[in-house]
């Protein structure tokens, strides 16, 4: 039987032999600190044993009493430390709650103020509220597109976004294509941006919410569209007047919708931001017309209770920084926006390339004959309004050829 002194010797040996690194990284936070506590325990226990009179060999009663006293002291010291930690943690949690509450109030104020700005620009309360919420819930975050919009393979049925710094194989092909088309255009994009700046600066056009400007593209046969556009299909009319690319210009925080904002709504296109960050909200024509809503009534529908729920479920919202490119599939309409709270902001421009690709229009759940007719009706109304203007006459001629290819009946002239 081992007496108290023997137990101390064994404990001392265990303490000395225990490797520090065996404790560090285990459930203990600090192995060195545990060893210090054990050593202090040994010293205090030795003091207790030295004070026990008549402790005979094998009698552990006095030792047990000393151990109990030491355990009580240890528990008390641990409880005191735990209380301090718990108090500090509770304080930190309360401070975080206060910070979150203030941040929430700040963001709600931003959203409310921006809704008011958008309302002045012609946005309805409900649609403007959704846009404001999407833009300014957390301004501290750099824009990252929805993961659903970024894909490794091209899908002509889905909205897709490629950032300017996209180095994937598909991203490189997209940016090379847009660069080559812009470079091969008869008129440079930069000069057309300057033209829209002049038009928007004209005091007579102060009431404009924006404008569209043709970029005289008309690619030469040497461009070899079918090769350069792979794997994006084979767009038609790129060598014809009327199949040109466009510049879409939006005044800051103004509501823009229809053929006067994004040429040929409903037809596939690629969009690239050219001057500053711009935003785009995309809606499915099929989802709209199944609600019994015509494209011309779309803005009013968004302000109804049903329209508010519709835009939450059936819209796609994204931003494009300069050089970023998006693909809009056939059967979708786009609401462009230049959102900015800077009092000195004026307007911004995006480059748009219509893609008259028959393969994009094959039968899908969202592409029906009704969808094609709705797109035709929406654009034809605008062409009729702009009748006699050369650029729209050329655009209408190309559009009608495409509609005929898709089996959409021609517009019957009114006597």
Describe the protein in words:
With 415 residues, the protein is an alpha+beta fold. It folds into 2 domains: 4-88, no CATH class; 143-405. It contains 13 helices and 9 strands. It has helices at 4-17, 20-23, 31-50, 61-120, 125-136, 169-184, 189-201, 225-228, 285-289, 298-301, 305-314, 369-385, 390-405, and strands at residues 160-162, 210-215, 245-251, 269-273, 278-284, 315-320, 325-328, 332-337, 347-354. The protein has a 6-stranded antiparallel β-sheet, covered by helices on one side. Strands 6-5-8 form a 3-stranded antiparallel β-sheet. Helix 12 runs antiparallel to helix 13.
Brief synopsis:
With 415 residues, the chain is α+β, with helices and mostly antiparallel strands. It is 47% helix and 13% strand. The model is unreliable at 20-28 (pLDDT under 50).
